[in-house]
Amino acid sequence: MRTTQDTFHLAVPALDLDEAFAFYVTGLGCKLARRYGDRITLDFFGDQVVCHLSEKIDQEPELYPRHFGVTFHDREDWERLLRLARLRTLRFFAEPFHRFEGTAEEHRSFVLADPSNNLLEFKYYDDPRMMY
């Protein structure tokens, strides 16, 4: 069973590691853990994302079914990241939107696209029981 000491790991393709660094570290504020000639490893909000150098990227990404991100427990954290993304002029794939209004699953979301067209969704549920 996973504990708080364990880390979720996700690997994504990156056309250019300098661009990936600029987006994830300089833009989003992720911490660089390691850098090699063919990848960068990041502390992505407490989990591990590895950007592997690759020419196999999605030229025309669609949000469903492939994306990843963070579901925030506190709305203030979600809003803080949204302000940061705007301030640092990160590329929005989808501007902030509201889903399932009036239901238990109601949440706010926005989607960023990294330089290699990986889509990152950040959301906040009004009812924290709906996070999973």
UniProtKB/TrEMBL annotation:
Pfam families according to UniProt: Glyoxalase
InterPro entries per record: Glyas_Bleomycin-R_OHBP_Dase (IPR029068), Glyas_Fos-R_dOase_dom (IPR004360), VOC_core (IPR037523)
Residue ranges constituting the VOC domain according to the UniProt record: 6-125
Coiled-coil portions: none
PANTHER family: PTHR39434, VOC DOMAIN-CONTAINING PROTEIN (PTHR39434:SF1)
The protein's name in its UniProt record: Glyoxalase
Originating organism: Pseudonocardia ailaonensis
